[in-house]
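Sat 14:20. Reprocessing the chain from the morning session after the first attempt stalled halfway. Input below, unchanged.
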Amino acid sequence: MSQRYEMRFSGSGGQGMILAGIIMAEAASIYGGKNAAQSQSYGPESRGGASRSEVIISDEEVDYPKATSIDAMLAMTQEACNKYYKDIKDGGILLVDSDEVKEVPKGKFKLASAPITSIARDQLGKTIVANIIALGMITELTKVVSHEAIEKAVLARVPQAFLDLNKKALQIGFDKAKAFKV
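Finished this time. Tokens:
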């Protein structure tokens, strides 16, 4: 990759979108040997308000850390999808949690839709790892970082007692994304 790759993780406060962005940036920079910049924005509420995290990944120095032409976006809520999808570039990827995003906007992007929160609840018994499943999915869909790099970054960020849960969540994400032809 010799150009910028721009990602946006969006949802509501408490869904782990800021953490997802930080993990992706660390996977790219610490474990992937690329340059990365991560920024975040969230409403005044710590839980429930719209939040987003943006990551710029490049082989070259990242001279402008703001995402303006999104290559891949995750939307975990309808509000976040409606608010942030407009910057997805033609041919980009929009990954939505179909549990929450019922009205998918139209655009010249590729769509991947899965019940991410339900998968977390039904397969792992914990909706708190929905963001990690989504990270696995977006990693598989974009291939912007390796499976190994994202796993190392996830495991470096979670408490020891939850390593296995997060490894399983990441693998479920990888596996679910393989069904999409984006």
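The chain has a mean pLDDT of 92.
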